[in-house]
Amino acid sequence: MAEEQHQEVHRSLQTRHLSMIALGGSIGTGLFVASGSAISTAGPGGALLAYVGIGIMVYFLMTSLGEMATYLPVSGSFSTYATKFVDPALGFAMGWNYWFNWAITLAVDISTAAIVMQFWLPEVPGWVFSLIALILIFTINALSVRSFGETEYWLSLIKVVTVLIFLVVGVLTIVGIMGGHATGLSNFTYHKAPFVGGIPTILSVFVVAGFSFQGTELIGITAGESATPEKSIPAAIKQVFWRILLFYILAIFVIAAIIPYTSKDLLGSSASDIAISPFTLVFKRAGLAAAASVMNAVILTSVLSAANSGMYASTRMLYSLSLQGYAPKTFGRVNRRGIPIMALLGTTVIGLLTFLSSLFGERIYIFLVSASGLTGFIAWLGIAISHLRFRKAFVKQGHQLSELRYHAKWFPFGPWFAFALCLIVIIGQDLHSFATLDWQAIGVTYMSIPLFIILYVYYKIRYKTKMIPLDKVDLTQSHHDD
Question: Alpha helices of 145-277 — where are they, by DSSP H?
């Protein structure tokens, strides 16, 4: 069967898919499990401040991405934008950086799925579940874009419904209708609350909040396979803002009101601490006995959904890198069902190897996971820079802003705010290690930065690229870069 070298990906994702993907992308184990550790670290006020700050930044980033993605919907969005609007070397480094991040995240997610399953079946070895999860996710992604969209839609719906039920139960518990006595808001002023540990601790919680929101930028990647990008993307972005507010800010408010920040139960940070997920604790307080088992099932769907998105995002990024000539040609091949199958296989192999390293070489695994740590923030920085350049070039080349289908709010405040906050978070990731000059910890925490710089410098030296002058930026809206 002679396949076309350049068959395109299929534009079959609908608005409901995109909205759910954007939403589901940002509700994950970060909210269900790690939110507790944020409260215990910085107190209820500190945690809320961090989540509100990152939430606002993510919203502005989404509007920046939305403006570029409605103008130029492509599959590997921000790597392409960085290439076109800033400097090919930046696009190259951002694309590979992002692909690496998601391929590693995929491995982390399938390992986590095994931990979650062992809650019910402790006698089955974990790798069995991980293998099943990987095969399942590979199959969903290999069938069609549509099957990815549908799966993500339903998995995300489960997460959304859980959060809504949680909010209702939580509010009823706070006012005393469920769970006996009203807690009111006394925990907000308990001991040193609401702010514990001052600015350094709040900064460290910014990172936890940032991780929780990673995945919202998937809207940009799905743009290339959206049936109606000019309608779906603005709709999805508008909803992101309200959802961040509703889900994150309210959920953290409820947890902080019901469980004092000094509670040891809030320290759980991984999916193995399911019995002490803040959600489980709140449901138990309200007198719902089956809480742990139900929450475990929800966390399982959330982990699978994260792995599903991760597989999709990294496959599309690799496909896009190949189209731009940054990766081997073979990864640009698309089969008759519109799936970049070689890119999917390539990503699966990396996910599998990373996962195997968690079984055999714990140190390599920890190294890989920490190496992908800050890559999400680096991608966000790149989006902000690309948007600033896009707008400048657009105006410089005599275009009217009225030509844009979607306008980023409050330009240029949004991208500058995102740029500054990302930098602060990246630098403030581990100030403690700098104070004590713990070089090993510094190396592990900041590893993604030198990796990114190496990619950037390698491409720059090899191809002698320059920053593209504003009047030379290519603003043509061709659907294909052959």
Answer: 145-174, 198-213, 218-222, 229-243, 250-258
